[in-house]
């Protein structure tokens, strides 16, 4: 019987704790706020249950539609034009909207629309948070009709309602000021309203109020208001005027209806943090770092103050994950982040790029010696042992350095050149650093020869495909196959994919190679269908470089037309690294799925932060990384991670397939955890066409 080590239990608890935080946030948002997500064209891509309940439409009726489906016709075209202008420029829009339910009845919501921006500061989707304010609007109408009726209703409202003069003198406050803010009502009615507003918000509020009084345009705003205990709460306010016929002021009064949004602010802050930070280390993520770096470079165009980019990679970290497990690996990554954080200055910025890669921006660098001193201190910190749960581990790092402006004036060039310098260190002794120089740009003789041979191989068709079966593990029936490219050089023999695929990625040759793989895989799948194998789905790996090709969709359509393969029998596999830059690829993934082609995420599970937003991605399948499968039958941590991935996938309607299955015990454990599909050497190695057909003859085909 396996005895669980205390550190294993602790690591499982940490995983479960992170998952619980994600579930709690999702639960809090779904239960308290009406949420809708649209793409940049305005098409609805997600709604929660409260959205459906309020509109009376089902989720199926809403997804794919625009908000015209609930348009009441109340607002002018200029209203929506101004709204789209605001969010299209990347700014948050707030306001009140009158909509229409499915049964024709009307309702009002207060909406906050948050644009999510890609690295080019262009919105790629919009998330709206709505609150049903139909009752409040009815209250306001009653106020206009009768101040006496207004007071009666206001006394029973949970909103903070006040009547003030232009100078801020209070004429009336609702009982909710006592219930929520704990003030004595009589003392408030003899005071001024403005000192209750946070000093940082007051000037803006007064300016907006003056503009409102002058132009009579609707005013919706947010500010912080002081409680009796001298603590501020966030409120959103609707401001209007009301004719005064009874008060001592003998002039029109300003009606301010405020709603406590403190809880929503906390949730929004947490969501924003998750979107721009790495949940493991607390560092900014790649998206956040790139945005800040670009902004810094814009500021430096005139001053030319120095910036150094440090690209940091842990040495031999994969061995730690493989031998000690991902939980120990994660603990080491946290300590690695501390090593970096403890050296850089308060003005500098460190981020996690993904996996075991970190990047640092050193600002206002005066000389190379200053950069070298910081780099040397980071290397020194890493040479000391890292203690995790009482055990010492020595994990060194390698660093590549690029300086602005001599090594590049754009964010992309600086990171690329720092990466080139890092690659040179990694190919040598490691545990060192190198500053980028022109000689690094020159490729080695072997690399140049291999690249030339690759180009010739494309012309002479030296590549071919092998197919590895994908199995329904419960009944061991084949349900598809993954197409894997092989290179048989006439002189050098078989060249490992790990050697030429990375070369293809770096040189851009992956685009013509990928197009050939796509065509050949679809052609072969169609040929097998004509032989009676109608239900097999062929999976083909597609790199991020291919997705960035502006003609990729046209090429995909042309391949399907020429091979006559029905789109539903094609699946494109993407590595999990696509999640790090999903804002730039989500639209093309949506186009792919609209064609009927399936999309899966390969090597899933190596980046836990992806779990928080996987449900928003246009994908069909998650492919569990082989590193978790390798020891799932003996390692409780790997089992817990696989269980979590399967649970989340099932909850949002995604299929799950495990790769790298080599043992019967692994297959049994995966089935026990609810994984239905798998592939690996336990079932079959990748096979040439003839061998694959023989394998099929021995297997039952999924119907």
UniProtKB/TrEMBL annotation:
Domain PAS residue range list: 37-66, 146-216
Highest taxon above the source species: Bacteria
InterPro entries: Biofilm_reg_signaling, EAL_dom, EAL_sf, GGDEF_dom, Nucleotide_cyclase, PAC, PAS, PAS-assoc_C
Endpoints of the signal sequence: none
Native source species: Ureibacillus acetophenoni
PROSITE patterns the UniProt entry points to: EAL (PS50883), GGDEF (PS50887), PAC (PS50113), PAS (PS50112)
One Pfam family per UniProt: EAL
Record SUPFAM superfamilies: EAL domain-like, Nucleotide cyclase, PYP-like sensor domain (PAS domain)
Segments forming domain EAL: 447-700
Annotated ranges, domain PAC: 93-145, 219-273
Domain GGDEF: 305-438
Protein name: PAS domain S-box-containing protein/diguanylate cyclase (GGDEF)-like protein
